[in-house]
Specification:
The protein is an alpha/beta fold. An eight-stranded parallel β-sheet has the order 10-9-6-2-1-13-12-11. It is globular and about 85 Å long.
Length: 651
């Protein structure tokens, strides 16, 4: 049977929330109150929420207690024998399953779909295991996995045909449940996924993991999860993610975080991705108003890049609860879209407003965006730093990128970016040969260097390396003029080069080549003598008022990437302002859609330059926005952190 992927259709987008009941948080099942759950669901539905991620807490649903005698042992529910039912044989408390069914019925009543986190043994910093399984490794112990299989099989079999079910999730961040090897992680995820599919081949299975890596040596990898699961997900909290907490929340780097990380996961895992949980982590991180601006821009960006949906963490504040983990961690208490008593926060209005906006558009789904370049991430480097930095610089320069891993098949692309190459084993000979074959046939390859080693460097770049060494901590500044502006950076390594055929586009203050271009067959290689992507990712700045521009925007790093945009034969719309982001979507041979986003917390008026197209209708959450035609394209005024969709057609 074909999987029901309707919840995750390309071009569609849902808004959702992670749900624990307002009165009891994660102890809702043992303190069950269906009237409060219905009140919660009604409130969420009235505010545009379409999807709930829900959690059958493992020890409540499978309350195993091992009783040991001199002649053997027996699992019971506390002191009571397990009933002679299918649920009893699976160790499931049928009373809890009946409560789950009531919740499913209420979700259907209020037109919301459920993503069900099956193995909810880790939640908000606390491990929850059935009593008799405490002390065992939930990911590797065969006895524990046996009970996990029984629990998952029962729950999926019982509820697979309920109309409220949208997808099954392996569980909440199960990679936090215990240590394991790469092979053990693959095996556990396969076992749980195949158990779901043995009972239900109609609904997709979601990863539920966070913090995945591309490297195979890491236990939980994007490629493994993509091989096993139907849908990947991210949990992109700026405070917990490297390089994303360096600027105010409603500025460009944090706003692009969820989008960049999710495309990173989807590209390297080869499966669709959505933001399964995200948020600001409370009022000590930002005000409600800043959180709302951050979400306004993040929702628009996620939708424009086909990330299928965004679920806020979480539905209600849990600041009146004293159970752990709430008693332990202040950061877990005030994360709601609503207070514990149902008072609405500003972010709830942004979710409902965005849901209404995309439903009001005169097209059913957003066409696929045009992708200009492929970022090749290499071994031994900080892959997330290189990915995030290249995504930011590309967005500022008007390029749209996807990612690939250096051990995967090299995809066809007009432009390849190999950013911030590091280590002695960055890329295999076979992969590099394939890349250079594509360059020889006409593609452009961009390489920036940290301390990486590349074979045939001279032939590829047209540069001769004289010496390389670690850069001095004092006085190691490199100054170079790019696009009429001076760039000051501190590369970790110093490469002294001379041209043996390359066209030197920029030199540093000592006359050392910084940016060079070399003809290679029908194509070209552009070389940058610094890991500018890592520099862009790790840079810090402030953007609190108009005119206070952060490091990553004021320095002309992105102008290096604009050279790459000029190599793209696809003539797309562009904007000179690096904080205005564009995606372009082909409707048919004569018309396109532009998604335009102001990443900054102040109003901006900019000209969008078109090549062979004229502007048409303009749509936005702010109804007064319009696209005023100019000689070169159109002018548009975008309020703070606001996006707009403009139709364009051939002149």
């Amino acid at each position: 049977m074909e999987k029901n992927q309707k919840l995750f259709e390309s071009g569609k987008f849902f808004v959702g929330v992670n749900y624990w009941a307002s009165h009891a948080g994660m102890f809702m099942w043992r303190n069950w109150n269906s009237e409060i759950v219905e009140k919660d669901f009604k409130l969420l539905s009235e505010n545009g929420i379409e999807v709930l991620r829900v959690f059958p807490l493992w020890p409540d649903f499978q309350p195993l207690r091992l009783h040991v005698s001199s002649s053997g042992s027996e699992y019971r529910f506390g002191e009571d024998p397990m009933p002679f039912t299918e649920a009893g044989a699976c160790g499931v408390d049928e009373k809890m399953a009946d409560r789950f069914e009531i919740m499913c019925d209420l979700a259907e009543k209020y037109n919301m779909k459920l993503v069900v986190g099956l193995i909810t043994g880790w939640m908000s910093g606390r491990v929850f295991l059935p009593e008799s399984l405490v002390g065992h490794n939930a990911l590797t112990d065969p006895a524990v996995i046996r009970w996990e299989i029984r629990f998952v099989r029962y729950l999926v079999k019982r509820f697979k045909d309920h109309p409220a079910i949208g997808a099954w999730d392996l569980g909440n961040e199960c990679n936090c449940l215990g240590s394991c090897s790469h092979d053990e992680a693959f095996l556990w995820a396969s076992i749980i996924t195949n158990t779901v599919r043995s009972e239900d081949r109609n609904h997709p299975v979601v990863s539920g993991m966070h913090g995945l890596k591309p490297e195979g040596a890491y236990p939980w990898s994007m490629s493994d999860q993509g091989e096993i699961l139907d849908i990947l997900c991210t949990h992109p909290y700026p405070m917990f993610t490297p390089y994303c907490n360096t600027d105010p929340l409603n500025t460009m780097k944090p706003v692009l975080h969820a989008t960049a990380e999710s495309i990173y996961f989807s590209s390297l895992g080869h499966k669709p991705c959505f933001i399964e949980e995200g948020g600001t982590l409370g009022p000590m991180i930002s005000s409600d108003e800043v959180a709302a601006d951050y979400m306004k821009a993040s929702l628009f960006s996620s939708w424009a890049h086909d990330l299928r949906g965004f679920c806020w963490w979480c539905a209600f504040d849990q600041d009146e609860l004293t159970n752990t983990p709430y008693d332990w961690d202040p950061v877990e208490r005030e994360l709601g879209m609503f207070t514990a008593h149902g008072a609405k926060k500003a972010v709830a209005d942004e979710f409902s407003s965005f849901s209404r906006f995309i439903k009001s558009l005169p097209f059913d789904r957003l066409p696929e965006r045009i992708k200009d370049a492929t970022v090749i991430l290499t071994s031994g480097q900080d892959q997330w730093g290189a990915a995030f930095g290249s995504f930011i610089l590309a967005k500022q320069a008007g390029l749209d990128v996807d990612f690939t891993w250096c051990r995967d098949e090299v995809p066809d692309s007009r432009v390849y970016l190999m950013p911030s190459v590091c280590s002695n084993h960055a890329v295999s000979k076979r992969t590099m040969d394939k890349i250079m074959e594509k360059v020889y046939e006409g593609a452009t390859l961009y390489i920036s260097i940290s301390n990486g080693v590349l074979t045939h460097f001279r032939e590829i770049t047209g540069l001769y390396l004289i010496t390389r060494n670690e850069n001095a901590q004092e006085g190691g500044e490199v100054r170079v003029r790019i696009g009429g502006e001076e760039l000051k950076i501190y590369p970790p390594y110093r490469h002294v080069l001379e041209s043996v055929g390359a066209d030197i586009k920029a030199e540093d203050q000592n006359g050392n080549p910084f940016l060079a271009e070399n003809v290679y067959g029908k194509g070209k290689v552009i070389f940058c003598n610094a890991p500018i992507e890592i520099i862009a990712a790790t840079s810090r700045g402030t953007l609190t008022e108009r005119g206070q521009i952060p490091y990553s925007l004021s320095h002309p790093l992105h102008k290096i990437y604009r050279e790459l945009r000029l190599r793209n034969p696809e003539k797309k719309a562009c904007c000179d302002n690096p904080s205005i982001g564009l995606t372009e979507h082909i409707c048919d041979s004569s018309s396109r859609l532009l998604c335009i986003l102001n990443h900054c917390p102040y109003e901006q008026t900019e000209e969008i330059i078109l090549d062979g197209y004229r502007p048409g209708s303009c749509f936005s959450q702010e109804g007064s926005i319009s696209a005023e035609p100019t000689e070169k394209g159109f002018r548009i005024t975008l309020p703070a952190n606001t996006g707009a969709v403009v139709t364009i057609s051939k002149s």
